[in-house]
Amino acid sequence: MNKYLLIGLLSYILYFDNVSRSYAQANQHVNISSQPAWGPAGYNEADYYYLPGIESYYCVATRQFIYLNGGRWIFTNNQPSKYAKYDLYSGYKVIINKPRAYLNFNQDRLQYSKLAGYHGHQVSIRDAKNAKYKNLDKRKYR
Length: 142
Known about the structure:
Blueprint lengths: L1 H25 L21 E4 L4 E4 L4 E6 L2 E5 L17 E3 L8 H8 L30
C-alpha cells in the first residue's frame, strides 16, 4: 500500500511541476510587436537598445531615444538632432534588458565602444525572414 501511495504522490508532484513550468513559459514577456523595424531580429524581448554609434539608448516600451546632453538625460521621440542622418538599420544595436539601462552609460560606452563603427550583418526586424515576424505590420514601426 505504501508503495502505491508513494508512486501516486510522486506522480502528483511531477504533474504539477510540469503544469507550473509550462504556465511560466507561456507567460514570459514577449514584446516583438513593440520593437521598431530597425531593431535587431532574433529577440523576443528587448527593453532597451544601446546604440554605440551615437552613444544613445532607445527605450522600446516608450519608443523614445535617450541621450546625454550637457550632463542631463534627454528623452525624445526622435533621434538626437546631431545624429539625424545616422542610419538606424545599419548601425549596431546592443540589447539591454534591465530597468533604466542608461544609468549604466559609462560601463556600456566602454564595453561597446568597439562596435560604434561596426556596420556588419545584424539583420533588422524589417528584413527578417523568421516566421515570428511574418504577421507584424512592419510599416507601423520606424
